[in-house]
Amino acid sequence: MKLSERHDPPVRVLVVDDQQLVRDGIASLLQVQDSIEVLATAANGQEALEAALHWQPNVILMDIRMPIMDGVLATIQLRRQLPSCHILMLTTFDDDEYIQDALQAGAHGYLLKDIPASDLALAVRAAAQGIYQFDPSIAGKVVSSFVPSTSRKASEMENDPGDLSSPISTGRRANSAFGETSLGDLTKREIEILRFIATGATNREIAECLVISEGTVKNHLSNVFSRLGLRDRTQAVMYARERGLL
């Protein structure tokens, strides 16, 4: 084959869902899409961990509510063990709490199961390139959650936030929600802790890794939130990921 005829390797996908009919259906739909290879399926988070370590997928489609180990806990562990793998939540639940938990855990997007197969394929390919993916019905929630209502000016509300009505809306639309904040406002230690936050690490885990007290970690986090204008850990995770700290 000539060099000009070569194609990029397919995106390697693992499908995780506790309902066999659902996961097999998703796998079948994706398998016939161009540039996508479904490696395996798993019925819960524990199986997902084992399968991911064995198959080394580029993207994992993860249900959020499953027995034995749910999708959030599995995502936290997978982000530590396979940091190069991108995890997309694919679920029927659009609750704010689930969305926040998933993003804080390190998910690279949040999609609902009623998404058309072609759009799901687009989302998988985009996620493999590091682009955040959100279902149009929840994209507004994600963006608004990162803009404190007390700091939003009327003129900012009038600006066009980008078209969120397209089949796939990416988290890169949310960059403007953080304003002009800069990592240069942080100390090296604060940036280091922010990087840990992006992996889903707890305060205790950060303290153990850096050999400092949990109280010191909390003080650093308070400074990070204040200097960057962030409201909580979920915002910190998104900020860190969008600034390439992971």
Automatic annotation (TrEMBL):
Q: Name one GO molecular function term.
A: DNA binding
For whether the record's keyword set contains Mitochondrion, the answer is no
- Give every HTH luxR-type domain span: 179-244
List 4-aspartylphosphate occurrences by residue: 63
Q: Write down a Pfam family by its short name.
A: GerE
Q: Where is the Response regulatory domain?
A: 12-128
So which domain of life are we looking at? Bacteria
Q: Name one GO biological process term.
A: regulation of DNA-templated transcription
Q: What is this protein called?
A: DNA-binding response regulator
The record lists the organism as Ktedonospora formicarum
